[in-house]
Design brief:
CATH superfamily of the largest domain: PAS domain
Helix content: 40-55%
CATH architecture of the largest domain: 2-Layer Sandwich
Oligomer: single chain
Strand content: 15-25%
Number of strands: 10
Shape: rod-shaped
Order of helices and strands: HEEHHHHEEEHEEHHHHEEEH
Radius of gyration: 46 Å
Structural class: alpha+beta
Number of helices: 11
């Protein structure tokens, strides 16, 4: 009996040892799996941070004391290589928490606005989006900062965000703005009247020549439709050709325009539809030209009459001279003509 009891105790101990070994093995497997997962997570984190086109940063702003600037209470916790590349500061300088080094890069005209915008976001904990200029040597870089400040238990605020170099975008915008301003200036000082209307013909842009030509003020014209410039009879005789313009044609026509004071002038219209669906028209006042053309036609008509009369008279003179010579010949006298 004692021998059997001893065997049973041994079996129990062996089973316990086996269970413990299995638990240890499972723990080791779990640890190994966790280690693999951690390694994969670290690799993913490193890949995401290292290969971003945007600069990544994390800063800590201590609970600000009364009168202290956010600049004096900010600590840089992390910046990636791309951030250093954009602002052109060595990573080692950021590792030394050189907040001032970064602020030295901000354009002097933008520093106060940059600080103010940060302090407002810090106060209200709202998503932060700000565009500012960096001045590096004699070069200007445009930066866009996006961050989400969040309050910590100790009252400090942690900001994690990105910084994007938008210099090319800004330069493109500036080039477009300058081009648009030049275009507007050319239109404003053009000798021909310019009208831009929406898809229904209501004016949205007019130039000074249009004001001078029609006699209406700018405000008055911007409340009018293209059809308001012509009499019902003229519109019936020559309807506005929107469909042709919609088909991509440049529509050229002449119409009698009714000015604000009731005068009638003749204009040559060149109209087309723009890619945005609006219509553009240039009006050239050809009233004087038309008057000259009419006068010229009248003079030509008169000249033709005088010419016909002169030719008829000349023919009569020739016939008369022939008759005189014939009579002189019969008389036996010397011919006169």
């Amino acid at each position: 009996m004692k021998k059997n009891n001893k065997s049973e105790e041994t079996g129990v101990i062996l089973r316990q040892i086996t269970d413990q070994c299995l638990e240890i093995t499972n723990d080791i497997n779990e640890l190994q799996a966790a280690g693999v997962s951690l390694t994969e997570s670290q690799e993913l984190y490193f890949d995401l941070v290292s290969n971003q086109t945007a600069g990544i940063y994390r800063i800590l702003v201590q609970n600000q004391e009364s009168g202290k600037s956010i600049l004096d209470t900010t600590t840089i916790e992390f910046v990636n290589d791309r951030f250093c590349e954009i602002v052109e500061v060595e990573p080692s300088e950021f590792l030394n928490n050189e907040v001032a080094k970064f602020f030295e890069r901000i354009h002097p005209d933008d520093v106060q606005e940059f600080i103010k915008s940060n302090e407002i976001a810090q106060q209200f904990l709202k998503p932060y989006i700000q565009e500012t200029r960096l001045l590096i040597g004699d070069r200007i870089k445009w930066m866009r900062f996006e961050s989400c400040p969040r309050r910590l238990e100790d009252g400090s605020t942690r900001w994690t965000g990105i910084a994007i170099d938008i210099t090319e975008h800004k330069l493109a915008d500036e080039a477009i703005r300058i081009s648009e301003e030049n275009y507007k200036m050319l239109l404003e000082f053009a000798s021909d009247a310019f009208f831009q209307g929406d898809k229904n013909g209501y004016f949205i842009v007019v130039n000074s020549a249009a004001i001078e030509q029609t006699g209406y003020s700018r405000d008055e014209l911007l409340k009018m439709n293209m059809s308001d410039l012509f009499s019902p009879e003229m519109l019936q005789e020559k309807p506005l050709q929107y469909e042709q313009a919609r088909n991509g044609e440049i529509v050229k026509t002449e119409r009698e325009l009714v000015c604000k004071d009731g005068r009638m002038i003749t204009v040559e219209m060149n109209s087309r539809m723009m890619p945005d669906g609006t219509f553009q028209s240039f009006f050239r006042d050809i009233t004087e030209r038309k008057l000259i053309e009419k006068a010229l036609k009248r003079k030509l008509s008169e000249l033709e009459i005088y010419y016909d009369l002169a030719i008829t008279r000349e023919r009569k003179m020739i016939a008369l001279k022939s008759e005189i010579n014939l009579l002189l010949e019969r008389l036996g006298e010397k011919l006169k003509y």
